Every structure is written in C-alpha cells, then in structure tokens.
Amino acid sequence: MALPHTPSSEVVRIAPLGEALTGAVNTAILKAKELEVIRLVVLAGKTLPQHQVPGEITLLCIEGECELKTPGAVQELATGDFVHLEGGTPHALTGRSNASLLLTISLCTPRG
C-alpha cells in the first residue's frame, strides 16, 4: 500500500517533534515528478548505513545531532545545520542524540 503524499499547495508543518521523537518513524512528505521530501528520524546510536542516490540531496537538521559521513569527511550536523550533497555521493548518518532531519532528493536525471 502506497503512503499518501502531500497534494499541491497543501501546507505541512515541519516542526521539531520534541518528546515524540523517540517514537517517530521516517515519514514520506512529498513525492513529485522531480522531487522527494522525507522526514528522517535517526535515534541516538543508530546508523543509516552508507548508500547513495543518483540525484542531488539536501539535509536540514530540524532537531538533535547526527554525524554525516561522506568520502574523506565526517561532519557533525546540529539543529539548524544544512548540507547539500552532489548526486552519487556515498553517505551515512549516525545519531549522536535523537534527531530528525528534512531530506530532499532531486529525482531529475543527472546530466552526463
């Protein structure tokens, strides 16, 4: 069963989850022709294993702290931090504290 996504022009509140964060799960917010938006939940000590996607991505840390590993770099993301990764960049996330992030993925075919 497919999850419903936000229809065009509908307002969605992307606020910190606070105490509800520990029971929250990843949530698909939008999947359009060229864009996907997901709220990621990364709990303290948990890791989203290394992976990559063809399109460019952005991560906005809404709350908490996590570690972003990319080839040759390990960066700490804290509340309010934003990062962009080029398409095809291998990356992994590990929760340093319970964290939620807004992930955007470009679904456009990369030009070669």
UniProtKB/TrEMBL annotation:
Gene3D superfamilies: Jelly Rolls (2.60.120.10). It holds the Pfam family Cupin_2. Residues 42-101 form the Cupin type-2 domain. This is Cupin. It comes from Simplicispira suum.
